[in-house]
Protein 1
Amino acid sequence: MSATIPVLILAIPLFMFIFLGLAGKKMSHLLAGILGTLGMGTVLVLAYYTAFHYFFSGDPAFISEAGERLQYIVFNQTWLQFTDRLVISLGFFLDPISAMMLVVITTISFMVHLYSLGYMRDHHGVFEKGFQRFYAFLSLFSFSMLGLVVATNIFQMYIFWELVGASSYLLIGFYYTKNSAVSASKKAFIVTRFADLGFLIGILVLSFYTGTFDFTSLTSVPVEGMANVYHVDLSTPNAVLGVFQSSAAPMFMGASVLTWALVLIFMGGMGKSAMMPLHIWLPDAMEGPTPVSALIHAATMVVAGVYLVARLFPLYLMEETSLVIVTVVGAITAFYAAMVACAQIDIKRVLAFSTISQIAFMMVSLGVARPEFHEGLGYMASMFHLFTHAMFKALLFLGAGALIHAIGSNDYTAMHGLRKYMPVTHWTFLIGCLAIAGIIPFSGFFSKDEILSACGNYSPLVYVWMSMVAGLTAFYMFRLYYLIFWWKEHKIPEGHHAPHDQAWTMSLPLIILALISCVAGFIPFGKFVSWNGEPYDFMAHFDWGVASISLLVAVLAIILATVMYRKENSLPEKFKNALPALWDWCHHRFYWDELYMFITHKIIFNGICRPLAWFDRHIIDGTMDSFAILTNKASELIRPLQSGQVQMYVWIYIIGALLLGGVTVLCLI
Amino acid sequence: MFTNILIYFVVIPLVMLGLLALCRDVKQIRAVAVVGSLGLIGLSVYVLLEYLGIRAAGNEDPMLFVDSWSWFAPLNIHLAVGVDGISIAMLLLSSIIVFAGSFASWTIAQPKEFFLWLILLSTGVFGFFISIDLFTMFMFYEVALIPMYLLIGVWGSGNKNYSAMKLTLMLMGGSAFLMLGLIGIYYHSAPEGAPLTWNLLEIVDNAAISHGWQSFLFPMTFVGFGVLGAMFPFHTWSPDGHASAPTAVSMLHAGVLMKLGGYGCFRVAIYTMPQAAHELSWIFLILTGISVVYGAFCACVKTDLKYINAYSSVSHCGLVLFAILMLNETAMTGAIMQMLSHGLMTALFFALIGMIYGRTHTREITQMGGMMQILPYLSVCYVIAGMASLGLPGLSGFVAEMTIFVGSFKAGMADYLAGDGSLRLVFTIIACCSIVITAVYILRVVGKLLFGPVYDNHHRSLTDATWWERLSTATLIVCVACIGCFPNFFNNLINFTFKPAIFSVLGIN
Amino acid sequence: MEIKAIYYLIPSLIMFCCGLYGFLTRRNMIAMLISLELMLNAVDMNFVIFNRFLFPEQLEGMMFTLFAIAIAAAETAVAIAIIINVYRSVNQVDVRTLNQMKF
Amino acid sequence: MDYSQFLAMKQEIGLLVVFLLVFLYDTFMPRSTQKGLPAFASIAMLLLTVAGCLGCCLCSCSDVVAFGGMYETSPVISAIKNILNIGVVIVLIQSIKWANGEFMTMRRGEFYELLLVTLFGMYLMISARHFLVFVIGLESASLPLAAMVAFDKNRYESHEAAVKYILTAVFSSAIFMMGLSFVYALAGSLYFENIYGALFVSSTSTMLVIAIAFVIAGIGFKLSLVPFHLWTADVYQGAPTSVTSYLSVISKGATAFAFLVVMAQVFGSLYAQVWEWMLYALIILTITVGNLFAIRQRNMKRFLAFSSISQAGYIMLGVIAYNTLGMAAMMFYILVYIFSNLGAFGVIGAIENASGKVSMDDYRGLYKTNPRLAFTMMLAMFSLAGIPPFAGFFSKFFIFTGALQGASVAIYVLVLIALINTIVSLYYYLLVVKAMFISDDECVIAPFRSSCSERLGMWIALFGIMFLGLLSPVYDSLIDLSSLSSIGMYFIR
């Protein structure tokens, strides 16, 4: 296919960013917003066109006779050439997952653009300060995210990886006069930066051995069987497999360098996808405007980590260890986040932790994916869950945004019983909850079920663990739902008029996303996405046993939530008092932030930086100054020589002359 | 003599000096400064194009526009000029920064004297970059050093006497070692019987410096230039110096002068004494590796904007020397790009700091806050500069650092696999860590200075950038973005032309 | 017994040392000048002795001595003049008081 | 005897003629025209210099030995004499204003006569090939100076300086001649070449070493090498500024060259065994101690005294180099040093004449009141400190290059020490610049217009500072001369 459309997909948001960034101040708020939205709309259309073209055109470039979907590089422009082999190029990479991501990103992004037209103004319709800047940043983010998913090589991915980090920094810190927002943005950037350090080193290791950044060379799909599951196209001088199995690749601390590379790269993913222990930035990131949270911190950027692992999945397959690590990290994170989500007051925090937990689901399912189980069901499942989760989590966030916009507070304590006042929000939010809880027939059910069965294939332990997490998910979501919409009558503070549904710009996205969440489950996802491109009908692997069990768990959890939170009662209190420690730990997110504070401030800042600075000023600089001081001292010392007494002068003269002679004599004889 | 284009890099500043001496009022002075620096930019661009043209024609000489006029015949001292991609890059950088600098000092006190010294300084800089004769190189080097004393002393702020004296003396101390090293090189520049020479190319061709002498002269030269490159134990002049220097001088000094160090280390020390470079590089690797993280850590706790940037300069320039010492093509390319990028962005930083200081009369970040609401233009520029310096893709810093890391990691792994110890590898990893620390201190400053509520209500009355300030900063930002977006152009410019040098350096390992 | 050079050299050496000692210890500038004269004369004696005993065939030493005496005279003259000047201005000739300029 | 050999002494004779003219003018011209004397002397000297330079350039006179081998002249020697002449011309021009001061009316002539006589003595010193001539030159170069130091009667410092100078000078000449007597005893002659022939490495004895030490001490006294330097500061401070400048450049330069000649032509064969190490120690001492003292000085003349001490150390590098490069570099250094130092003294003299201020503290903020003077001073300081593009840089660079030619590691160390000392020297030269340019407080020296003679002197000095280095022919010709000279063949290590 021609490169025009892909180029436009990337170019339009970039242009919008520059244009709105430079000229935004000159134009009216509304105009800027509409321009941004229109731009995103165009991108949406183009992206859909591209994706459908890829999936359905049947173009031999995209799908082989065997019917397996192929990787296709639309264009690839050399950007920076290190050596004749090691090249960073910017390109456009089409394969099932990137096409899928195109759809997801553009959809959510467009929804958010639209939504923000309503959200970013107060009740009197006055636009917020920096409205144009907001849209500029949104465009920047969309550009970076799109660039990330269509990366043709791992370094391009890294480049846009950094860019999304930066734009998320800018958007979290959008309310830059609020100190909390500023520090949150700083935290987000630095934590992810730290993770990216691992990513970078991983890339360096990988590229040193393979001599290439290209995904096509690194991960070309296998033709048949396990024998050559991993083979680099022969254009690469030394095939990756060969390299890593050759003795040239040493073991390092008991693991092969490939494992190290993969783990380090996964570290980058952990940072972006807020896996433990690098998750601490995501809850704080909720300081940003809610649409931003919906776009960046629920739907798109945070799944970049999952996307990265999926992208390099064939490499990960080579190293069992790395996949195990992925699984373990994912499983722990999922449980941890779910626990914490049960004890949060701030509704956005609850959603944030549920996001972490859900992404952990995807990670786990990647970790447990093996070609031998249902052609790598887990891979497909995680992509599927990524897709559905993006939709319903965005829905939930936007709903929360609507609530916050109406109430003016993030805490459910200020809400309670809003169902009568805000029906649209109520229903859409409910749909979102059902979807995430995994109730048939909503989208979440299918994707989560796939994941669970993949876990089941892998090991029963993981299966039980993850089902438990699934139950927790259902519980905390409905806890949230009830506490917002039921619990007790909403009391309107005097002077305020009753909360109501927001403008159509805000409601429309909710409705659309709700619809998608309802139907998305029935997409035969396996037809499009599979770990090796061979389409298959996943209903064939649909395990009704697993499905019913997970459904049962979810329902039970929901019932529990209903009992506890539908009507105002003392059960939660009792619960809390029964296990105060548990509540505290969950409420304080297991004190991770405090730990980090301690490490960064006490140890690094006060323990390293300050002493170093002192050392520099006093020791190093002191030495330099001491030279000067010593010189002065010396001149002070020899001052008496110049006593002004002639006879003294002559003494020194004669002694000098005699010494001169005498010493030489001694040396000679 | 005047048929050679390069000589005009010295002629133009000299003419400017003459005109400045004649100037009567500030308007004329500004006119001379602007026209002259524009002329320099034009000249360097012209040379760049010419150069690319000749290279495209398949010319493989190590240097182009080579020309040499005998000066002190008995010592075989020539006024020898010639450029390759690196020098051209440096020339571009210098001319741009001179341009920006003259706008940044638009309303300086005693403009006549100020610009006289400034232009004299840039004469030295340009002369240094075009000359390939060790003597003339050294002469121009020192010409560039001395005006700093008066520029800081007279127009500086704070503890200026101390800083100016310290800076001058430390740099002169460096050049003392340097002079010894250069004369030593001269006396061993040719095999027995052949005429001795100061000419770099001939020295490299002769490759006559015996092994023992190399291991004595290499440290001399490297330290000599390293002092100006703010190498670890010898960097302390830079924080004080920058802190007290006036804006344009900080720009020129951090932007260009510190590059003289890196350039010299590469062009003289490593270029002429590769063997010693190979054997002794480990010492300096440790030192420079330290200065990379050390500078960054120190920057984390400073509260004076200029100190913060001075230390970050220590860190970044340390990275330059670090990469040069990797003795591998990619890393060296990265080093040169880092010189470019650091030159531009640090100049931008100092320009902005100067402009903010000129308004608030304080550089303490604890005394300021919420500038974004008051000085939006300057603040946005500051954010951009910060992003460039913490290596955001699309801006120059990222390209340079990545090139360096890829190259030095390659060198490190090569050593490691060859069983030559893992020093390079370890220090590469350590250097990589600096990108995180950089992020920390940059964001700390940005958060404290620009964001948050307004700290001091008196600041609310401040006015945003004037047109000349906008021009000065915009120029630099555009250049930073250019390098960041089209790195391969510069990469090829440096890399391709610098193969001969690389071969001669790596020829012996 | 015939007379050896050493018999002359020792007195001249003693003279020189006396001169030196006097020059280093006396406070009166005139006395210092006299000590200087002693030293110079010791030098002259040396020349004469060496010429007479070692190289009797030519008279270089003698000639040098003649000139040296003249020079010594000139030096004394100038010195005296200056000392008188000083005396005019500070009314005394103690060398140790002349230490206004020091360090 | 053959009178034609007087033709060898063209320059000496020329100098005598100038001397006689000045003398006659002083004696027989009416009182009213006496004020013209300084100008007259300067012009006469200028003519002599021009003639000398032309003669040096045009007729390539070869080495001539005259008067039974007591006197020698050669292109190098006439070159150094011309260099001295140039310096003298500048000194004379700069001193015109001072010499026309009212209290000079009685002794205006004497000043010039004495000065010319000392110059004549230096000529002899340089051309001497026999120690008798050398001693005569030495004495006639130093005795009249004592009188000149004592010149302004109504300043006490002048007397004290004169006393210190004359006493130490006579003492050192006594030591020097003592050394000579030993040499005579060992060599049996006072002819340089005879001594050179008579002294061998094998014949190194305690007496000889002591003799050499005494000779070095005697000459080192005039060069003010540490530890024979102690008179310098007081004398420079006490003497009238014109005399100080003359002392600091001319007599130093002449003696330095004479020193090289003597060491090479008399003790050349003992270079490595005996006196290289003596000189090595002396150089380190001289440079370091000179610098250390200079740091603390506030009086400009005293300050320059110490700076000139350390400069002497650098000049000696040209001797220890012991090769033609070093010799040429030394001559070039002397030339440049003359210009730089006279530039500085010109400013000091002008300011002293106008306001009587000589303290560095009075120079604070001079740039605000008298920018041109301050600028001249700064360039002089930079040149002395060896900052390009001023001449001082080149002379320093060349002298180091000369010293390092085929040098042992020891010499490398020596040069490194010297280089590190340049930093210290830079420090105190910058102190002056700082006082004039940077310090903000009000200047006590009111703006004034210096007399045209002073300005002329400063312009000449400035010209030298600016262009001597950049114009390579000067240095090249010096190299040619010294490579041709007969002294070159003594340079055997």
Protein 2
Amino acid sequence: MQEAMKKRAKELLASGEVTRVIGWKKNEFDYDITPAVFESAEEIDRDFRYDDFCGPNLSKFTFKNQKNDTKTLVFLKPCDTYSMTQLITEHRVNRDALYLIGIPCFGKIDIEKIRADGTDGILSIASEGADVTVKTLYGDKTYVKADVMAERCLACKSKYHTIYDELMGEEGEVMETGRFNEVEKLEAMTPDERFGFWRGELSRCIRCNACRNACPACTCESCVFDNPDTGISQKAAADSFEENMFHIIRAFHVAGRCTDCGECSRVCPQHIPLHLLNRKFIRDIDKLYGEYQAGEEVGQRSPLVNFTTDDAEPDIVRKGGK
Amino acid sequence: MPISEFKPKIVAFCCNWCSYAGADLAGTNRLNYPADVKIIRVPCSCRVNPIFILRAFQRGADGVILCGCHPGDCHYTTGNYYTRRRMTLLFSMLDYLGIEKERTRVEWVSAAEGAKFAAVMQDFVKTVTELGENKRLEDRRCKKP
Amino acid sequence: MIFSYYPGCTLKTKAKELDAYARRSAEALGITLSELPEWQCCGGVYTTAEDEIATKLSSVRALMEAKKEGHALVTLCSACHNVIKQTQYALNTDDDMAFKVGNYMQCDARAEADTKVIHYLELLRDIVGFDELKKNVKNPLTGKKIAAYYGCLLLRPSSAMQFDNPENPKIMEDFIRAIGATPVIYPMRNECCGGYITAEDPAMAKKNSTAVWESAKDFDADYIITACPLCRYNLIKSESPLPVIYFTELLAEALDVK
Amino acid sequence: MQKIGVFVCHCGTNIAGTVDVKAVAEALSHEPGVVFAADYPYMCSESGQNLIKDAIREHGLTGVVICSCSPRMHETTFRKAAASAGLNSYMVEIANIREQCSWIHKDMKTATEKAVILGRAAIAKVALNTPLTASETPVTKRALVIGGGIAGIQTALDIADAGFEVDIVEKEPTIGGKMAQIDKTFPTLDCAACILTPKMVDCAQNEKIHIYAYSEVESVKGFVGNFTVGIKKKARYVDETKCTGCGLCTEKCPMKKTPNLFNLGLDTRSAIYIPFAQAVPKVATIDADYCNMLKNGRCGVCSKVCTAGAIDYHQQDEHIEEKYGAIVVATGFNPIKLDNFDEYAYAQSPDVVTSLELERLMNAAGPNGGTLLRPSDKTHPHTIVFVQCVGSRDTSGCGKPYCSKICCMYTAKHAMLIRDKYPDTEVYVFYIDVRTPGKNFDEFYRRAVEEYGVHYIKGMVGKVMPQKNGKLLVRASDLLAGEQLKIEADMVVLAAAIEPDKTARSLATMLTASMDTNDFFTEAHPKLRPVESPTAGIFLSGVCQGPKDIPETVAQASAAAAKVIGLLVKDKLKSNPCIAHANETLCNGCSSCERVCPYGAITYVDKEFRMPDRTTKIRRVASVNAAVCQGCGACTVACPSGAMDLSGFSNQQIMAEVDAICR
Amino acid sequence: MLTNREKEQILISSGVDVRKCMRCGKCTGTCPAYDEMEYHPHEFVYMVEKGEIEKLMNSSSIYKCLTCFACVERCPRGVEPAKIIEAVRLAVIRKQGNNHIKAEDIPCMAEDDDTPGQLVVSAFRKYKK
């Protein structure tokens, strides 16, 4: 697939159809992949990658690196198409300046899972079908891919692309993989247990803002937490309250807009399962206001800027219904 | 602090058209409710940002209640419908984080419902008093020594 | 289809025919009435006083028993139906009552007594359906003019009974039509026969009952039907010239299982 | 540097009785920014206001906090006072220490402490207030009256008389409403048609008045001075401009078995009909449920006989949009359905009728040509029983909890008319109370008793029993005699409670006008603003606001008209400056705010921004139309970046209040 | 102050708010036991409100109510007079030795072969404690 993508990218550059290509590039290690802009065939030949480590959602990167006066090719995994659709709905990217190619995704590998196995001194990693081969200073290791796949990919919601100009590979389908199981587990706990759980998680937050930077829904010109005029700006959480506040408000601000791409948890250096906050909102919205998937179509109306006259009353929370 | 001495701090956001007028009517009819309740007037319940609610808890509130026109009767036609969704989701999130769900409430009080206003406030104060001090959403820096 | 069944004392003694015809007819209509394994007398009349708990417990036990069986509960005698329905209504609407009863029974009485309770006529109307009943009639009572006598217990208080329009009911008339006869509508059909007053003041009971059959007679009825043994007793005692029979007897006759 | 003045009102003893006002002023004088604090017996009095004005001038105050009654009472008073002393009127905040403090707390210490906290919150807020200036919007000089009964007619005539255009929307094919169905009026016994029909004709002939008959309001957008209303003209299958009202079609129409709704179904009419002789507009209408041509394409008689060629079987509903400066609601009432009152045998016997049905039975244009006959057998009734309060004052859930107000009087009228015309008829009226507060009302009722020999019996009817002989056995109690009565009557007349028309509820939602639990429209103030809805630009006329009789309805109708005229004579209206505004540098252009705005006040513009690297970038940003925004604030919360804020209730101001209260 | 305590007891036992009555008399207009009663349903409500309980307790009217619920059904104010009458009757028969019907009355009832058991238990419920 990677070679086909490179070929197509170069074709489009050569034809002048696009002048820039957004994709992934490898850094020092095989598993250290970052989004990048490619402007020439040489750059593509040298650095372009598409493999099971290309986790980053290119939609957010596209948003940050968009240019209006020229056309950019962007490769989008199914996940990323949802985010891209949502960004177009919110007028955050200029659709006319983009050429979108949908590409398949077979689940990405979580390097932390390999490391957690005690594997150190990694020299290279190759993923082929169901096998992942790791070459290290101390010898080779082989893993079954499903064992080292990222959690978000194990609970993948869709292999379907919601938007593209051109599709490479086969179109997939929306899937049901129990992505709310964790949320349900938490819901089943007592309030004290839940409080303990979240305190344990959120107290580790170092307010590095990685979640915010990676989140394709967090595209505000200026975040309320950075704006001294809002009265709630904070750089680092000085009290457990501020840890809660930041994450509650961040989740609330993306509620109804979050596509559940899982970037927040992927990038969190403290491994806080932030996606469980967003999924809670998604789950509540689905249950209370009907199934809703952000980023499914351009022009959708988010449930938070919508209503029906017979919506559930807020009481439902206190009374434990739902 | 023994429960009997505990006086909760309650912030009540009231929409100008229905609930604030309902609170006025409670006063006109001399219907008593605890002084722990302090009302903040907002044009519509939909003006209340979740940030305000968290801010109140941060600054030491033990309970926050939002009052608006009955659904369908909003002065601005649809404001309280948005309030209803926002607050349902926010309250559910607070509950998910293990924060006592009884500390937050939304009630619809019309301009004619002075008695309801007083009864709602009595009940809410009672509930919050029984819960005791807000510990789970407090900001220790804002507490008086 | 299986339903729990509460016959009540009188149906085991003086009103056996009310019970027997009901059972036979139900069978013919494909309904299984499974008598509660344990039941006590309902007490005959509901005590409205809120500080009377003990007199309500037999009904609560019947409700709980039925809940255990897992089926809706069918009653037949108007009095039993009234007492059980009113008890259930009180449990559901009066927190204090539910609390006290719960203390007696050592359980969450409201939750454990929430069985659906229906009268045999409601079974015919809502479960079997009068149209379906009509199809099953083998022996239509064509040409018979029948006055349905509701009395008080099936209808009132309507908040608890939820049986039919308390002032202009039609369930028994619809029943009469279903078995091929002609209903007679007369104004006294939902007025009291005197009930238990016959033990205290027989003349008064007679006066009340007479007014009922006179009204039915006035409108040219051939028979009076009822679901209540005491109504029937009072009407007969007051020398009604019209035969007073249980509705189940006519049902059995129409279904040809008499 | 803030210079805030605090003024604590005693309100006589209303506040000072439970709040230590001096202590409040003293405590608040130490708050940051406060340079002046005083208390005074009546701040709203002229001298109280002078105290404020003097302090503003003397201390150069930048903000004023008044601890007094509810801002709903005197906010405007104090704002005006501030403005006259040169301070922007939006630099005033009120701490409500009467309705929300002194009146609800009995303990002086508690109330004083609370008053101080409320004062602090107001000080914290006012410190962040900014001067605001109201913008102006033009007024559309045209009024809409919804409902064409006597209330709507009177309002429309008065507005037109003042020289303004006015439209009436009436859902029936003719205006006239309930009054057109009534035979005589109390307490004068003059003929309803004789006094109503000239007014109907005036409406039709007045060139300022346009009648949309057989029409309904579909949508209402906009705000005071600038409403846009969608009106649906229902298809009547007759071209209004061609029909001459000759009535030939109604004679020739073969479908004579159509229930005559104008006579409440007591007789029948043809499928094409003119409701009554004096209908306005006098135009035929086809009842699509009964017309053979419309149902199955077979007939067409009316079209053949119509010389004007007015019949149009293909007519469609027409949708019109009009602009208005003011809207008057005059949707009226109906008697309640009597389904819950079968003890009175209304459904069982045709001889049990409602009072409105009796009006038609006695009317010369009614089913019996004005002779009172029993509906069942068309015989002359010799005994008539009237039952009062059927569904009125009923808290059991079957009826309405309120007094319907008109029944006592119309029943006295009916009883009197019957005794006058048929002296051999005995009339019994069962009453709980006879309520006759009105000019010449009690005298009228007494005449019924003293001159006409109507039997008034205090007590209620328990049950009406139709007998085999066609009589109605009425069982009732006579409380004064201590008797249970059994009366054999020929007819029973039920004074059914009245309720607001069913269309009022959905209309209220469209108008954003509030209603009470009985679906009567709420007035802006029960005593002082009885003909206005709390929603600006919406006025109330007639029974839609509460039960009332004809004289009262007409009085209220004229009052509503006066209010409308007062609005329409203005060329411009000052609008509320407490509205939303977008901070363009923060705005993402995401459209969240646009989607929640109930007024469509938000639009987007592409704007060029200079970037830190000296390049420019064009971004889509929100822009609020100040004339359209009503200041609800829905957008401020929908906005994730905090770009939307609300003047007068800004994020910072509200949080300052929160902080002050929780301090 | 005896009557006030009695009144309290009647109000608690019946669960009726007598102050809701608007004196329309519909209960009495519909009562089938009217002729046999000295005090009628509306008077029960009014007299309990006034605290005149003793008169009611001493009257045979308390045994004449058929508990047919016609008054309850038809009252426009939801007052439920039948419950008041029952509460007064209970206040009487709950007193020691005040059973209105005695066990020895049963045989004479039983003599009548058709007497349904329902009648006996109902009469006991109403007239005996």
